[in-house]
Amino acid sequence: DPQQLDMAMNREREMRRFIVMDQNVDEYYGSKVRKYFEANNVHYKILSLPTTEETKSMDLVLSILQEVHSFGIDRRKEPIIAIGGGVCLDIVGLAASLYRRRTPYIRVPTTLLAYVDASVGAKNGVNFLQCKNKLGGYTPPVATFLDRSFIQTIPRRHISNGLGEILKMALMKHKGLFDLLKSHGKYMLDTKFQSHNGLVNHGDAALKTTRLAIETMLEELAPNLWEDDLDRLVDFGHLISPELEMKVLPSLMHGEAVNIDMAFMTYVAHENGLLTTEEKADIIQCMKGLELPVWHEDCNLHLIKKALVERLKHCGGQMRMPLPSGLGMAEIFNDISEETLERAYKLWASE
Ligand SMILES: NC(=O)c1ccc[n+]([C@@H]2O[C@H](COP(=O)([O-])OP(=O)(O)OC[C@H]3O[C@@H](n4cnc5c(N)ncnc54)[C@H](O)[C@@H]3O)[C@@H](O)[C@H]2O)c1
Fold first, then answer.
1. Contact in structure between 100 and 203 (CB atoms under 8 Å)
2. pLDDT for 6 beyond 90
3. Ligand 1 centre and the CA of 117: distance in Å?
4. Ligand 1 nearest-atom number relative to CA 56
5. H-helix or E-strand containing 255?
6. How many independent structural domains does the chain possess?
7. How many Å apart are CA 93 and CA 104, to the nearest integer?
8. Of residues 50, 41, 54, 44, the one with CA closest to residue 21
9. How far is CA 284 from the centre of its chain?
10. 256 lines ligand 1 (CB under 6 A)
11. N or C: which terminus of the chain has fewer CB atoms within 10 Å of its end residue's CB?
């Protein structure tokens, strides 16, 4: 039937896109996104989903795949687009990696945390049997599109949450980034990471900060995409926080738990002679300025030791503890004694 052939050829010429969008993002930005696709004559489908930590599961992956299948995409030239926070990007990444063994996808992060962290790297995944990110893979996106204007609708506490991961990179790798957070942290919280012209005092702090955060993150992740090397500076703040986060769920956000871990580790580094008293105070002060918690009563010595035993199990019997050895510098340690941990804890708890 020649008509059918015509239709098939038109279908080949037409631009088609399948988009998955976080429901909240759809509320704020959906009409703009639709206008964009219409203006560019794209035949599109937007699947708007409640992508939260509670729905981050294989069920949602399968329901996305059902919709992808009925819309029909050409995996050679029609990447799936994910627009949302880290949860949305992780679910869609996993769905795309499974569909026809691997369909390209594009990440468009819309939270600060996703912008600096989930935007970079190859990992995706969903929660399984009450365990965080238990099912997943390493399939990098074909591209990540960064647009900071999404961040203007993020609540203040969520911005602090993202700042926790940025501070991690600063403490491990970049004194300049630490100085930016120290001097402009509050301003960036107030202005929700948007750029404003003509404010001499702050320059374009948000642009500089996000750029440095992503660059340092890339430097760490790119040579070790599949995490074969277990000595990772990006694990700073992630030794004790998983245990703490699970224990007090849902009262602490991820970046907050990470910060409590980093605050304790700052005391450990000081006890071990790696940081001066002033540097230690400087770090804690910066954390407070970013409105991040530096202490939690449930983060007691028992929990700390339990978490470190877990760490040993998952890291081939070695602690691999990243610690700051100055501002913006770090090393990985395997020989921090129980006594050092106890002394650090005592001091941390007393201040
Ligand atoms: N793959 C990776 O490398 C990687 C890295 C870091 C984190 N993660 C994952 O990311 C998740 C956390 O990401 P998150 O902090 O972005 O959480 P999230 O995706 O749950 O988003 C947080 C909240 O913000 C809302 N939201 C998103 N964009 C918004 C906007 N522009 N304006 C207003 N509200 C908006 C969402 O609807 C949600 O309610 C975790 O599941 C974590 O495992 C993955």
1. no
2. no
3. 10
4. 41
5. helix 254-271
6. 2
7. 9
8. 50
9. 22
10. no
11. N
Give dist(CA 41, CA 106) in Å, integer. Answer: 19
- Could you tell me the CA-to-CA distances from 162 to 79, 171, 250, 251 in Å, in that order? 27, 15, 17, 16
For the chain, percent of residues with pLDDT exceeding 70: 99
Domain end position, chosen among 152, 174, 199: 152
Q: What is the mean pLDDT of residues 161-182?
A: 98
Residues 315-324, mean pLDDT to the nearest whole number: 95
pLDDT, position 84: 98
Shortest-distance Cα residue to atom 39 of ligand 1? 52
In the annotation, is 306 catalytic? no
Identify which of 114, 125, 118 has the alpha carbon closest to the alpha carbon of residue 56: 125
Residues 87 and 183 in one domain: no
Same domain for 194 and 342?
yes
Give the pLDDT of residue 326: 98
For tokens 């980093």, what's the residue? 262
User: What is the extent of the structural domain holding 313?
Assistant: 155-224+232-350
Say yes or no to pLDDT of 11 above 80: no
Q: What is the CATH number of the domain that holds 38?
A: 3.40.50.1970
Q: What is the pLDDT of residues 242-278, one digit of tens each?
A: 999 989 988 999 999 999 999 999 999 999 999 999 9
Is the minimum distance from the CB of 153 to ligand 1 under 6 angstroms?
Answer: yes
Domain shared by 47 and 182, yes or no: no
Considering only CA atoms, give the Rg of the chain.
22
Model confidence pLDDT, tens digit, residues 202-226? 789 999 999 999 999 999 999 999 8
- Cα–Cα–Cα angle for 59, 161, 163, rounded to 5 degrees: 130
